Amino acid sequence: MTKNRILPAVMVLCLVFAAMAVPGGTDAQSTDSPENGRSRTMASFSYTPIYQFETDLDSGGEFDVQRNLLRFNISRFIDRHWTVGLGLSFDYEDWNFSDIAGLSGVDPWNEVMMTGINLPVFYSSGSNWRFGIIPSIGLSGASGAQISESLYYGAVMSAAYIFGPDLILGLGGGIFERLDQSEVFPYVVIDWKINDRLWLTNPFQAGPVGPAGLELVYTPDGSWEVGIGGAYRSYRFRLDDSSAVADGIGTVDFWAPFLRVGWQMGRHFRLDINGGAMVGGSITIEDENGTELGDTGYDTAPFIGMTLKGRL
Predict the structure, then answer these.
(1) In the predicted model, is pLDDT for residue 4 greater than 50?
(2) Contact predicate 25/265, CB 8 Å
(3) pTM of this prediction?
(4) Which distant-in-sequence residues (6+ apart) come within 8 Å of 12 by Cβ?
(5) What is the pLDDT averaged over residues 29-56?
(6) Whether the Cβ atoms of residue 302 and residue 281 lie closer than 8 Å to each other
(7) Over 90: is that where the pLDDT of 126 sits?
(8) Tell me, what's the pLDDT at 107?
(9) Among the four 9, 100, 269, 289, which has the fewest Cβ within 10 Å?
(10) 105: left (phi over 0), alpha (psi -120 to 50) or beta
(11) CA angle 121, 251, 243 (to 5 degrees)
């Protein structure tokens, strides 16, 4: 009997995502605010292509990666206390290995796909505290991996205090079950307007690939901004059941310092140009039971990309 594959599931989920992205009625476009007693729904999307330049593996050979990241989010302000949402994600990675017979004795992969759904819930108290929980579930696998073996799930929780209009500070943590491995991490929640042109913030949403990172942003005017920051990233994916390590697991880890230049294009769109490097990176391969078969580091890998963001 033919086994289920991850690619058909990704295609179906993408169709579902597209259907859900179509605004339903005037409510999705409403400009009413929760302060005047009405709910307000906001929708946004982002698309990020990233190219990681060719770099050497410590075990011999080279590789480069083309990544494409797609996000769609809806937030609904129920009242002045409650905000709920829906987040959809799809990542596609095209890996190109060269001059290598195998990675630690194992043939590498070519394509990796990750798709997920999260359901953010935030509560703002009357005493300046803001609490959040973001449960998520998704699939992470190389092309041809089994759906039933590619599942990850978990949640991110946070608590932050609003000290004033210029400072929000708190702590958060994530706990995820990622392909037979539990992952726990803490992170700092911060949104600090240092002055009229400079602020420190979290550039990403914490999730199954790691914490929210930190970014220092400079805004010379209302249209342009320059940011410098970094984040740690780690993700696991199921391998093809017909590969040398059937139903094995690949893990990729790296730190990513970056420089960003952003341009606000009117009220609804923004374009960011990003550049940086993956440093301290490693690739690990495990068998289907999670036993490590081999790992290798790789040299610093420069990357360049862009992000188009929009509000619907």
Answers:
(1) no
(2) no
(3) 0.85
(4) none
(5) 75
(6) no
(7) no
(8) 65
(9) 289
(10) left
(11) 120
